[in-house]
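Section: Multi-chain targets

For targets with more than one molecule, the full set of components is provided together so that the structure can be written out for the assembly as a whole rather than chain by chain. Components appear in the order listed by the source. The example entry contains four components.
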Amino acid sequence: MSCIPELTKKLRARGYRITPQRLVILQALHEGGHLSPLQIYDRVHETGISEPTVYRTLDFLYSNGIVSIATRGNGHMTYELSGDSHHHIICRSCGDQLEIASQLLEPAISLIERETGYQLIASHLTFLGLCPKCNSISK
Amino acid sequence: MSCIPELTKKLRARGYRITPQRLVILQALHEGGHLSPLQIYDRVHETGISEPTVYRTLDFLYSNGIVSIATRGNGHMTYELSGDSHHHIICRSCGDQLEIASQLLEPAISLIERETGYQLIASHLTFLGLCPKCNSISK
DNA sequence: CTCCTTATTGCAAATAATAACAATAGTTAT
DNA sequence: ATAACTATTGTTATTATTTGCAATAAGGAG
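Its structure, encoded as tokens over all components, is:
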């Protein structure tokens, strides 16, 4: 969806700067997929990047729609590159995860955009639910 | 949606226990609306409830669908009672919040439930977007 | 009502995340 | 290239959140 040159252009246009730290963290996310802040720190701290920078960079990338929060189970967040749009359901009982194709949500999203005037950034939503197995047990 | 007697019944059926601490925290959420863990702790610590208990109780209530995460701006989460179902859009640029009626999402949610077999817990979703004002500026 | 089982709590300590601020280094213009 | 402007970084210190474990108490059985 957004390759590096595109990204840098967009960010610079907004007055932000492209730093080695940001590129390294993007790279780590590219290689690692879903990662928590500390997992990212583990991967990059040998280059001299500090912990606060990891957190700040993730906030920054998140606010700019470049990474998304992939899961928020029990407070622990993991981040991943936005891009390929899909969503997750997590079973609140067994923790199982399932991907949802983005098409299932597209109608609702454009409806919301029309109703509210907002432009949504909805590349990775996470739903909480009960998987069929746990659902039948809990009855 | 779920009054206290109902709740206690449901939780006990699952093998959990109803403690004074849990009731006090529920009460605080009932009175306070959106609250962060530490805001809740401020409200209840005079009753002797410890900080870890606040966090653990919120996790517990969240896993059981009794409270929802209301916002996750910059990592700071606030919790609120589930129940009256509505959703939020937060403008990633100015932070403005808007409520979305749950009806807008209901079709998509039941579609997902049919497709996946999961039963969704989707009383409070948070979307990130750009409000009309910020959207026009950033062009 | 009393005993038993074990979920839940508080305490103390460890880890994760954020804030403040001076120093550094992208970026644009000269 | 060089200079100037200021976003971004690292350091240090602070605050927030989680963990381990012994002590407590909720809820069911007798």
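The interface with chain A takes residues 14, 55, 59, 63-65, 69, 72, 74-75, 77, 89, 91-92, 98, 100, 104-105, 107-108, 111-113, 115-122, 125, 127-132, 135, 138 of chain B (CB under 8 Å).
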